[in-house]
Amino acid sequence: MKALTYSGFGGNERFEITERDMPHIGPDTLVVRVVAAGLNPVDYKVRGGYLQGLIDVTLPAVPGWDVAGVVEKVGVDTPEFSVGDPVLAYARADVVHGGSVAEYMPVPVRTATRKPDGLDFTAAAALPLTGLTALQSIERSGLGNGSTVLIHGAAGGVGSFGVQLARLRGARVIGTASERNHDYLRELGAEPVVYGDGLADRVRELAPDGVDVILDFAGGDSLDSTPDLLQDDGTVVSIADPRAASEFGGHYLWVRPDAGQLAELARLAADGALRVEIAETFELDRAAAAYARLEEGHTRGKIVVTV
């Protein structure tokens, strides 16, 4: 089979299209014929060697955890699925080796769910990691009907899902983003503010009493304004800054595969209640170029490789 691989840590130049053996199938594993693979920044951070000690990598490795495709083979104990089933998954295994940017991928059955008929494969591949990150952050925060939430990085891949999911739960959403993305945030149901110096004052103009929840999907200095904005009984969750837990008594979150939550997200997207923004698609032979585009950091929405 054909796959995008890297045989050593480093930059985008490490990528090459190679021929690999078909995936090994374990007792609780599916082999999925990949139709589309969603790309995420964590993929190139792993390739760059920045997460050594946190995530194990067996080289040569194929990147990608987000996948949508069709079941090609089933393990001996996978009664939930049959050959031919359309599925999507946040197929993160314990070791990075056989990822989704390939013609076939081994998918742990615990990570997969059926793709609804109303959701196309490209959108399905764009959903898992970012959608689950947003949903699990909201769950961890305790956000509910009537809450006021500030989302840092609201126009990004995780943030745009976070805005929509928070609105679906009846929350008021204030979102930080560059001005060029403000109309987009309004379409999603958020009240946009420009990030940077003076952020606390701008948020206080909209929410004089502060906010109940802060969701940080941006990192950097985003949490610096937390003491000025978070109510005394409020909660902060970050996917990028451990200060959320160590300084502010909140949560520092690393997304987990969860087939049940992914099924919920897929249903919302299929029903039109959750908008999945696709920035660009690339064919497998141009997957290295797709990652180069992702690393530029200027896209709104997901980049997807189609196979």
Furnish the topology, listing elements before pairings:
Layout (H helix, E strand, L loop, with lengths): L1 E4 L10 E4 L9 E10 L2 H7 L8 E2 L8 E9 L11 E5 L4 E2 L7 E5 L3 E3 L6 H6 L1 H14 L6 E5 L4 H12 L3 E5 L5 H7 L2 E3 L5 H8 L4 E6 L9 H4 E9 L4 H4 L4 E2 L6 H12 L7 E6 L3 H10 L5 E5 L1
Helix pairs in contact: 3-4
Give your account of this protein's structure.
The structure is a single chain. This protein has 2 domains: 2-127 and 276-306, Quinone Oxidoreductase, Chain A, domain 1, CATH 3.90.180; 130-252, Quinone Oxidoreductase, Chain A, domain 1 (Alpha-Beta Complex). It starts with a strand and ends with a strand. The chain has 307 residues and is of the alpha/beta class. The strands form 4 sheets. Strands 3, 5, 6, 8, 9, 16 and 17 form a 7-stranded mixed beta sheet that branches. Strands 12-11-10-13-14-15 form a 6-stranded parallel beta sheet, with helices on both faces. It has helices at residues 41-47, 121-126, 128-141, 157-168, 182-188, 199-206, 226-229, 243-246, 259-270, 287-296, and strands spanning 2-5, 16-19, 29-38, 56-57, 66-74, 86-90, 95-96, 104-108, 112-114, 148-152, 172-176, 191-193, 211-216, 230-238, 251-252, 278-283, 302-306. Helix content is 27%, strand content 28%. This is NADP-dependent oxidoreductase.
